[in-house]
Amino acid sequence: MSSHREAPEIAKDPVADSADLYAFVSPDRPDTVTLIANYVPLQLPSGGPNFFEFGDDVRYEIHIDNDGDARPDVTYRFEFTTEITNPNSFLYNTGPIDSLDSRNWNRRQFYSLTRVVDGREHRLAHKLPCPPCNVGPLSTPTYADLVRQATFSLSTGERVFAGQRADGFFVDLGAVFDLGTLRPFQQLHVAGKKVFAAEGEPVNATDRMNVHTIALQVPLNLVRRRANRYGVADRASVIGVWTSASRRQVRVRGGEPGADVATGPFAQVSRLGNPLFNEVIVPMSRKDLWNSLPPSEDKRFARFVEQPELAALLPALYPGVFPNLDRLGKAKKPRADLVALLLTGVPEGLVDGFTNATGDVQADMLRLNTAIPPTRKPDRFGVLGGDLAGFPNGRRVGDDVVTIALRAIAGLTVPLVDPTFRPDAAAATVTPGLSAADVTAPFLAAFPYLATPYDGFGNPSAA
Q1: Mean pLDDT within 109-133
Q2: Per its UniProt entry, which superkingdom is the organism in (predicted)?
Q3: The dihedral of CA 356, 67, 305, 370: what is its sign?
Q4: Is 461 a domain residue?
């Protein structure tokens, strides 16, 4: 999965677990960039009476680097508080919630938003309300109205929303983590040959699940550094984006419920830039370390990008399907194509009309060239499909990042840096077999783009 349970320790702490990160030039407002960070993954919609929420003891941040040093130049910080209106009820709500100030809603969340620029803090908003979770047709009968009420346009130019949304990530978890099975090719798997007579139908394991979303729409002039011009080839057009969650270093348990005290400086416990980086690239023994470090330290993990374990596993799991990839791996030649895609950005000259390079600092960030306009007909394969506005140029909600990553690791992008290499035929077709069409809740055409969350009453899992 993108980053839903990617490391041992953060898997125990879903409230602080960053699940997905998106960054793209807004298709309906191309003078802005949309940044979306999802947390609290794999939510069963019917999970009451204690429905999901952000953590009051977690500092959530979206960071933007605009000068290529992998350090934040602009940070948007979200901090949440929870209020109970009826201390004598066990219920989340005691009647329909038809507004954000409904007396029927017993457990409300609010947040403050702070923008940090070059170390200077600017409080943009205080006590903005989140919408409730989508409980069901009796409890939240007009959910879209609640979302509109919880979407705010700030005087400083940003639009902001924080609350529950449908998980838009699509991945066949059940197959991928069963010894790397890809159902469209399961009959070619080294063990699957004995089990499967033909290809299988993929299953979207995250479908009908919810997440908690922090969404920002920011004018481009607030995220890019000042420059004389912003063209596709100009470094000032490229930004690097990542999200993080932090907790206080010390927590003292109190004798009474709710009497715990958190103190000390904040320590980062989760982060996310490119999808699948910590999930697939970083070894199990180093995943928790990676989550604690800033992107500026990612040179420590460069060797796992240069020689990814999955690139060696594909020829072993699918014998005879990836012979050229197998020879490339056994030659131990560093994968400069993957270093460019994941750690430095793609330099000018490798893909016609495209670059999102940020310099020599190796760092896992979503790199977005903001001078590349959104397209009216997005290709889900992004840059690999000729759509320069898609992943790995940032990431849009419908981009098929799992297939793109698989094809890159399988060798499809090696000719960008080594014209003598001939990718295996399978490299251009390997896929888990899913697309945005396999997400039940359709994406929105406008902010916050992710769909209305699935409600607990109508969720098939509950039935």
Answers
A1: 97
A2: Bacteria
A3: negative
A4: no
